[in-house]
Design brief:
This protein is mainly alpha-helical. Helix content is about 75%, strand content about 0%.
């Protein structure tokens, strides 16, 4: 994903040729998007959080290499590594564009009708690093659902070698989707305020652009829906097992690991839904409206453009928040939170009982008097 706020600069070669004026749609916006500090902060936070989460996952994978949790940790490590790569690759290009702008003392705003090579690359990064976490979250949920509901079948089918093959297929599928515009199946172009790139959805949208948006959003929503179904089945199965209270101590330990993984998967799913749904919905709405050539006022067009900008900013935060799911929702952290909460409840209960005892003693003393 793009570790960015919308950009304000292009490469040095573009600056030496021309300065592209903003298109004829004039939407007022503040200058915060032209400040590279926000993009640098997002990139730094994303890299630091993902590195911390990756270290935690690698250590856990080394401990559980021969257990059922190893597959989940391999998926999770790959997800965090993909998020980290998204921040490093696209973030480096973002900062390069800012640097080129500051050195040449000009403000470049891309022309939506003529997207350049950096725009194509940024648009492809947004699609690739956006689909990968959604696909990986779906695969992790399906793997855990099989492990919780059919542990014997899971042990027979799911191996480290097959997991690595599945990871390769997921990355390859996301890459194929991201490369479709290079085969003239859709197009990447500059988006308002003409400083970031995504699928053409705002103006002169063609049937291929609409199909590309529908494919991208359909794959993303399908991944979220399948993850929701798998996590729901896993959660219900674990609740039923816990209510029966017939498992041995070893079995309870295994179920404890399953509970931790399902809780983390639910956190991933909720984070992805919140961060990605706005961009997916706004992209579909904008592309459909543009393709049908419906008459819209300048105010409506500006509203859709600003919604798209808000959507991409929220989507950017998905890669920043994902690592915190692994950092905060680990079993050790959850146990500490449980113990602190239990102590607080016990303290309040003992205080309440002490107050009741003092009041009762005072009433008995008054009666005796």
């Amino acid at each position: 994903m793009l570790a960015m706020q919308p950009l304000t600069a292009s490469g040095v070669q573009a600056s030496s040729k021309r300065t592209v004026m903003e298109p004829d749609m004039h939407c007022p916006h503040n200058g915060t998007s032209q400040n590279p500090a926000s993009a640098s902060l997002n990139m730094t936070l994303g890299i630091v959080f993902n590195i911390v989460a990756l270290i935690i996952l690698v250590k856990a994978y080394n401990r559980f290499r021969r257990r059922s949790k190893a597959t989940f940790l391999l998926f999770a490590s790959s997800l965090v590594a993909t998020d980290l790569a998204g921040h490093v690759v696209s973030g480096a290009l973002v900062l390069r564009r800012y640097t080129a702008s500051s050195k040449s003392n000009y403000t470049f705003k891309g022309d939506p009708a003529n997207p350049d090579a950096p725009c194509q690359f940024l648009g492809g990064c947004l699609v690739f690093f956006g689909l990968c976490p959604l696909f990986l979250g779906c695969a992790m949920a399906a793997e855990r659902c099989l492990g919780v509901t059919k542990p014997l079948l899971h042990a027979r089918l799911v191996t480290t070698a097959r997991t690595k093959i599945a990871l390769s297929m997921i990355w390859f599928l996301a890459l194929c989707v991201a490369l479709l515009p290079f085969f003239h199946l859709g197009d990447y172009t500059y988006q308002y305020p003409w400083t970031w790139c995504f699928i053409r959805v705002m103006k002169d949208t063609k049937s291929t652009d609409l199909a590309f948006v529908m494919l991208f959003s359909g794959l993303a929503f399908s991944s979220l829906a399948l993850a929701f179904v798998c996590n729901t089945i896993s959660g219900i199965t674990l609740i039923k097992t816990r209510m029966k209270k017939k498992s041995s101590s070893q079995r309870f330990s295994a179920r404890s690991h399953d509970t931790e993984m399902v809780v983390q998967l639910v956190g991933i799913m909720v984070t992805s839904c919140i961060c990605w749904s706005p961009l997916l919905v706004f992209g579909l709405m904008s592309a459909t409206r543009s393709y049908l050539k419906s008459q819209q006022s300048v105010e409506d067009t500006c509203m859709y453009s600003k919604l798209m900008m808000t959507g991409v900013r929220m989507a950017t935060w998905n890669q920043i928040l994902d690592p915190w799911v692994y950092i905060l929702l680990r079993r050790a952290i959850l146990r500490k939170i449980y113990r602190i909460t239990k102590k607080q409840v016990s303290f309040k209960g003992s205080t309440f009982r002490s107050v009741r005892w003092d009041v009762g003693s005072l009433q008995k003393t008054e009666k005796n008097c």
